[in-house]
């Protein structure tokens, strides 16, 4: 049988259903890879091997009845922030090291109902608030393509596990690029769903009933088909809230030649690495040759800087619900230090501390007006292709807080968090976005593209990711992880 290490989840499920391998044999294969290889990348930091083996044996014993489930017997890991009953959920906080969840998170339950075997959790930054995945509980996770570089964050362990062939499917979360950036950094596929499409119950340090604004959960995988399988498994409202979930429309097009594609490869005032822009432009050239209608000048009709700053303020408000008094005091002090003419992402964000509810309502009204502009834009265009973030995977950067760091892009020194532009200008308005690998830098690091669609256009963005997988570039394993 073909080595299953880097096969997509849908293929592994077919192998099990066809009798080529048992659930337990496949699980043991991935467990052995974790035990042999994960010392290098430190991705799978919480291991639940014994219970997973019990479940795999159970599935094998009832395989005749369970073969219809789409992820039957597929070994899966999830981001550390999701609850697994009896295991700690720390979000990287030392004081949570000995906590124990009372039950599995709802999306984990839904993966299990689809037949998946969850056997561990993957590493995150503290508070899920960085593109560097390190914390005092589990240490640093490295990028399988270059161990001196970060796999991204906050779903960094998730993407590293996918790239290194340590798991068959992953579940992450995203409020500022936390699915899309790691997928881009590690050369895998990811999907940030439309806001509200998937319940995140059980992905919180404290029990919450409401959805956090902007934040979503979604899959990372080695194929676009797997994104659909996982999304179908986890989509749906929390049944305890008695709210129905929308039925997603089908993809707008099934072939590249049928697509209307807007391309936004760079933005004045928002530094984007030249290699990233070049790869997206090369992809646009290819799509034109395939017969797609491609426009490199089409843009939604709003002030780009205003939309970005609106996202930053809404992001600060969304995160403030989980902030303690010490964190709020630090933000107030940072706000006082920032000069009035500082328009960096950090300055704009921190000025939102202590906003009133009335102020938030005004921001939300502005957000929905921009959502209408996005809606009008996507009447003319099926998807928008743009960068995921400003650069390929960064070297490990662990000194200081994120607002104290700086990065160099195209020779220009910029604040670290200014890179929120590409993740935020789309997700701040609740839009779905898929990430697909499209190339490599000259130094051998992956480059991905962000495929943005209309609200609830998730099947269209994943379909386009799948078409790129078929006709442009599929997942390629990093060297040395056989």
User: What's the architecture of the largest domain in CATH terms?
Assistant: Alpha-Beta Complex
Q: Tally the helices.
A: 15
Task: State the assembly state of the protein chains.
Answer: single chain
Q: Helix coverage percent of residues?
A: 25-40%
Structure class: alpha/beta
Shape: globular
Strands, count: 15
Strand content: 5-15%
- Largest beta sheet: what is the strand line-up? 1-3-2-6-8-7-14-15-11-9-10
Instruction: Please state the CA-atom Rg, rounded to the nearest Å.
Output: 21 Å
List keywords for this structure.
482 residues, alpha/beta, Amidase signature (AS) enzymes, 2 domains, 11-stranded mixed β-sheet, two-stranded antiparallel ribbon, 37% helix, 14% strand
Task: Explain what this protein looks like in three dimensions.
The chain is α/β, with parallel strands linked by helices and 482 residues long. It folds into two domains: 9-255 and 461-471, Amidase signature (AS) enzymes (Alpha-Beta Complex), CATH 3.90.1300; 260-415, no CATH class. Helix content is 37%, strand content 14%. The protein contains 15 helices and 15 strands. Strands 1-3-2-6-8-7-14-15-11-9-10 form an eleven-stranded mixed beta sheet, sandwiched between helices. A two-stranded antiparallel sheet has the order 4-5. It is globular.
């Amino acid at each position: 049988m073909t080595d299953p290490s880097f096969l997509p989840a849908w293929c592994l499920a077919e192998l099990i259903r066809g009798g080529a391998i048992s659930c337990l044999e496949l699980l043991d294969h991935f467990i052995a890879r974790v035990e042999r290889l994960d010392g290098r990348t430190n991705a799978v930091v919480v291991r639940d091997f014994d219970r997973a083996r019990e479940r795999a044996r159970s599935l094998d014993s009832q395989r005749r009845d369970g073969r219809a489930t789409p992820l039957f017997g597929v070994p899966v890991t999830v981001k550390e922030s999701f609850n697994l009953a009896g295991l700690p959920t720390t979000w990287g906080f030392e004081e949570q090291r000995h906590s124990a969840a009372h039950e599995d998170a709802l999306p984990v339950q839904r993966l299990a109902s689809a037949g998946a075997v969850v056997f561990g959790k993957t590493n995150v930054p503290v508070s899920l608030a960085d593109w560097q995945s390190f914390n005092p509980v589990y240490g640093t996770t490295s990028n399988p393509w270059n161990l001196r570089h970060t796999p991204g964050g906050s779903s960094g362990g998730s993407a590293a596990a996918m790239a290194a062939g340590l798991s068959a499917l992953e579940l992450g979360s995203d409020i500022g690029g936390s699915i899309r950036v790691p997928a881009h950094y590690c050369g895998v596929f990811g999907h940030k769903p439309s806001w509200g499409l998937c319940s995140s119950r059980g992905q919180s340090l404290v029990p919450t009933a409401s959805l956090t604004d902007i934040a979503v959960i979604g899959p990372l995988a080695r194929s676009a088909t797997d994104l659909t399988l996982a999304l179908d498994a986890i989509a749906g409202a929390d049944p305890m809230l008695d709210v129905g979930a929308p039925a997603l429309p089908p993809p707008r097009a099934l072939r590249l030649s049928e697509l209307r594609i807007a391309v936004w490869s760079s933005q004045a005032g928002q530094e984007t690495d030249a290699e990233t822009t070049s790869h997206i432009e090369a992809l646009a050239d290819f799509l034109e040759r395939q017969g797609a209608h491609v426009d490199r000048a089409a843009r939604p009709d709003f002030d780009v800087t205003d939309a970005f700053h609106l996202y930053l303020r809404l992001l600060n408000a969304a995160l403030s619900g989980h902030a303690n008094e010490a964190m709020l005091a630090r933000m107030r002090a940072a706000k006082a230090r920032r000069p009035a003419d500082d328009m960096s992402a950090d300055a704009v964000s921190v000025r939102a501390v202590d906003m009133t509810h009335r102020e938030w309502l005004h921001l939300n009204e502005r957000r929905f007006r921009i959502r209408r502009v996005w809606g009008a834009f996507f009447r003319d265009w099926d998807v928008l292709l743009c960068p995921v973030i400003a650069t390929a995977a960064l070297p490990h950067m662990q000194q200081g807080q994120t607002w104290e760091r700086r990065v160099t892009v195209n020779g220009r020194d910029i604040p670290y968090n200014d890179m929120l532009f590409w993740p935020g200008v789309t997700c701040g308005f609740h839009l779905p976005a898929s990430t697909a690998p499209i190339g490599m830098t000259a130094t051998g690091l992956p480059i991905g593209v962000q495929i943005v669609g209309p609200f609830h256009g998730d099947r269209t963005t994943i379909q386009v990711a799948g078409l790129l997988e078929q006709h442009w570039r599929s997942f390629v394993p990093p060297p040395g992880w056989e």
